[in-house]
Design goal:
With 319 residues, this protein is an alpha/beta fold. It has 2 domains: 2-128 and 267-286, Rossmann fold, CATH 3.40.50.720; 134-262, Dihydrodipicolinate Reductase, domain 2 (2-Layer Sandwich), CATH 3.30.360.10. The chain has 8 helices and 16 strands. It has helices at 11-20, 36-47, 82-91, 107-119, 134-143, 160-174, 265-279, 291-309, and strands at residues 2-7, 27-32, 56-61, 72-75, 96-99, 123-126, 149-155, 180-187, 192-193, 201-202, 205-211, 216-221, 230-235, 239-243, 248-251, 257-259. The strands form 3 sheets. It has an 8-stranded mixed β-sheet with strand order 8-11-12-7-13-14-15-16, covered by helices on one side. A hairpin with a 7-residue loop joins strand 9 (192-193) and strand 10. Helix 1 runs parallel beside helix 2 (36-47), helix 1 packs across helix 7 (265-279) and helix 6 runs antiparallel to helix 8. The two termini are 33 Å apart.
């Protein structure tokens, strides 16, 4: 029987839990969260779905103190305390991790995580799950031989600090990990509140970027609009408009329309966990592979905060 630990069972954590009980083998699942409301949410979401209850053993904990070493750990807490949790989990003997994003809040913390993971011969993957969307996998295969792409994302006020990483990672993956530089000069001239905490901030506006191979990126989150998520991918041979919200792909050259399948965490984590537990690999970026994405986001957001407040920021206040 595999043992899996889920640390944090709030909104995203409870979706991970729904996925874990869809695994095709028996599992001992340890859930850790001190917040009773999070536990109630997780238990209610378990009750929403059908699964083979005899395949799973659940134990609920308020801290890491009484849990056992696991084959796989999902860390679904806020970024503010993730480094300390990782240190403790590694000391307990855990060695395979799925980390929610943003992983941490500074380059120093990121380098420390890389160091302690390497010292324990552990592995960690970052949960930017569009790589597991079947539709994006097909698109990647379709544009694989194109030299350059232009990726444009348009949406409303869904939190640029929280969600930009999804599309920066998509760009990084579609361009085959070329080095990239982001530009935050067109972020809106204000800081927005973050629903996850008063010490956290949100952003709106536009992030642009360019890869070393000449591909370009534009992510536009408009603070005054409640828009659907549209993703344009242009290349020498392809012009695609992806309506993620309504799950449609429009080929602007041929005028053909096809289905886009959105991937929900309550299903994607089943595939992710199965890959890691059975194959010790994943389509997700490793912590090291996600380094450029994190550092560029830290840089532009911290620079923007300084521009508005005239204060130097050591930790990027996003999660």
């Amino acid at each position: 029987m595999k043992r899996v630990t889920l640390v944090g069972c709030g909104n995203i954590g409870s979706r991970h839990l729904q996925a874990l009980v869809k695994l095709p083998f028996e599992a001992d699942i340890q859930i850790v969260d001190p917040n009773e409301n999070s536990k109630k949410l997780a238990k209610s979401r378990l009750n929403e779905i059908d699964y083979k209850k005899s395949n799973f053993i659940f134990s609920w904990h308020t801290s890491l103190d009484n849990i056992q070493e696991s084959d796989f750990v999902i860390l679904a807490t806020n970024s503010t305390n993730r480094v300390e949790l990782m240190e403790k989990l590694l000391e307990m003997g855990n060695s395979r991790f799925l980390l929610e994003k943003i992983v941490c809040q500074s380059e120093f913390e990121f380098e420390h995580l890389l160091s302690i993971i390497n010292s324990k011969n552990a592995k960690a993957w970052v949960n930017t799950p569009r790589r597991y969307f079947d539709s994006y996998q097909k698109i990647k295969n379709k544009i694989e031989n194109n030299q350059r792409i232009n990726l444009i994302v348009n949406s409303g006020n869904i939190g640029l600090g929280t969600n930009a990483i999804h599309f920066v990672d998509l760009f990084f993956w579609l361009t085959n990990y070329e080095d990239m530089i982001l530009n935050g000069d067109f972020l809106d001239e204000r800081l927005l509140p973050n629903k996850r905490g008063t010490d956290l901030k949100e952003f709106s506006g536009t992030i642009t970027g360019k890869s070393s191979g000449g591909s370009t990126l534009s992510i536009n989150f408009l603070s005054y609009e409640n828009l659907q998520i549209f993703v344009n991918i242009f290349s020498e041979k392809d012009s695609l408009l992806i309506d993620e919200t309504n799950e449609k792909i429009y080929d602007l050259r041929t005028q053909n329309k096809s289905e886009f399948k959105i991937g929900y965490q309550s299903t994607l984590t089943t595939k992710i966990a199965k890959d890691i537990l059975e194959k010790d690999k994943s389509l997700l970026p490793t912590l090291k592979e996600s380094k450029t994405t994190h550092y560029e986001l830290f840089r532009i957001f911290n620079s923007h905060i300084k521009k508005i407040t005239n204060l130097e920021v050591e930790k990027c206040p996003i999660t």
